[in-house]
């Protein structure tokens, strides 16, 4: 588990470098990815993969919103690399492999599974983003 966590942190760090995150924010972006991945790992034992993706994305989005306000940076600086560990690339691969092998039923099943996990990730991001923006506007209006 420690090796997996280190690999996730390093992988997210590498994607942050690819996305040209400023060097002073690289560790924060990688920490968001690690936090999201740890959330998914914790949720796998108690829920389905869709709930894991949704909760991991919600945690990544919330951490990104907090860091963006603290560090005075755009939210996407932390969020885009932070959700990379959640992307169901392995599921997408097995989906395409099933279709290429001519197993349409297994391919369709994998396709739906991949789509639901991806949708859960999207919903987690949008939900937290909408709630934090609404709270931020309400807080600013009351000043």
Describe this structure in words.
This protein has 143 residues and is an all-alpha fold. It has one domain (2-141). The protein is 81% helix and 0% strand. The protein has 6 helices and no strands. The protein has helices at residues 2-18, 26-44, 49-71, 76-82, 89-100, 104-141. It is globular, with a radius of gyration of 17 Å.
Key phrases:
143 residues, mainly alpha, 81% helix, 0% strand
Structural class: mainly alpha
Percent range for helical residues?
over 70%
Number of helices: 6
Total beta-strand segments: 0
- The general outline is globular
- State which percent range the strand residues make up: under 5%
| Average predicted confidence as pLDDT | 92
Number of domains: 1
Sketch the major β-sheet.
none
Query: In angstroms, what is the radius of gyration?
Result: 17 Å
Distance between the termini: 46 Å
Sketch the topology as an H/E string, one letter per element.
Answer: HHHHHH
- Uncertain runs: none
Task: Outline the fold blueprint.
Blueprint: H1 2-18, H2 26-44, H3 49-71, H4 76-82, H5 89-100, H6 104-141
